[in-house]
Design goal:
The protein is 36% helix and 18% strand. It is of the alpha/beta class and 279 residues long.
Length: 279
């Protein structure tokens, strides 16, 4: 999400609930991830699906009790009319939200990921415990533009997190290095607090990543042509530097985590070590 939105201030919005654990999902395209995520939260809280608890804890790096009273707001870059034209399947997903998840999930359209105040207003009650964006993309393979995207978003996110809040961003293998994730995070006062965790669509039944400008499947030709093995995505957890100091040094993913560490992961760790020596 990179363009303007309209101010949204309904008194019953989940975005304004005081005392709730608030999760904001950005750039949700056809909302398939938002539905899968919300279904996992409900299943884990019911105790019916222990595997859902594991998936959630790995993605958010949070213990399940923090999600007992979660309120989730899923946002789309597009206005609703444009969204339905681009992703016709979204109509069915919106119906499921209304019928199955209205008590826990709210959807807002035309939301700018780096100007949340235009959609949610200002004030500490508008801050979030989790800001999550899976596979942010501008529809072009220009790494410079994506560095700018990350820099602007993280700069804005730093002012919209509640105390001990966190940012979760999922990127296709290689993007964290090409887009200088660690550098962009450091500029805004963030540090990566946990090892990158595999982000696999199979963990989120019904989810399909969509490119936010074309509606096509996200896995792009550049990534496909440069992949030497099955393409993977990774989720990174970021917290403010002063809050991240309580976490140990971030290790590399092990071979048990969807394969051996990649060159990208090694490069990220080297950057982290250099940053720690500079502090």
């Amino acid at each position: 999400a990179t363009q303007g939105s309209t101010l949204f201030h309904p008194s019953n919005s989940m975005a304004t609930n005081h005392g709730r654990f608030r999760i904001l999902l950005l750039g949700e395209a056809n909302l398939s991830f938002a539905l899968a995520f919300t279904a996992a939260v409900r299943a884990a809280n019911s105790g019916a699906q222990p595997e859902s608890e594991e998936v959630l804890e790995r993605y958010l790096r949070l213990p399940l009790p923090r999600l007992r009273d979660a309120r989730i707001v899923a946002t789309t870059f597009e206005p609703k009319t444009e969204l339905l034209e681009k992703y016709p399947e979204t109509q069915g997903f919106l119906q499921r939200v209304a019928l199955e998840f209205a008590d826990i999930l709210e959807v807002q359209h035309d939301v700018n990921a780096w100007d949340l105040e235009r959609s949610f207003g200002t004030g500490s009650d508008q801050n979030w415990d989790v800001l999550a964006w899976n596979h942010p993309h501008l529809g072009t393979e220009d790494y410079r533009l994506h560095r700018v995207l990350l820099a602007h978003w993280l700069h804005h996110a730093a002012s919209k997190l509640a105390p001990a809040g966190r940012v979760v961003v999922s990127l296709v293998e290689g993007q964290a290095e090409r887009w200088s994730l660690l550098e962009m995070a450091d500029r805004s006062g963030f540090a990566i607090t946990h090892e990158a965790s595999p982000f696999a669509a199979k963990d989120w039944p019904g989810y399909e990543c969509k490119r936010n400008t074309t509606g096509k499947s996200f896995k792009n030709l550049h990534s496909q042509r440069n992949a030497t093995a099955e393409m993977r995505s990774w989720s990174y957890t970021l917290m403010r530097n002063n809050e991240a100091r309580s976490f140990p040094a971030v290790p590399l993913p092990t071979a048990s985590q969807e394969g051996a560490p990649s060159n990208q992961q090694q490069h990220i760790q080297q950057q982290q070590q250099q940053h720690q020596h500079q502090q």
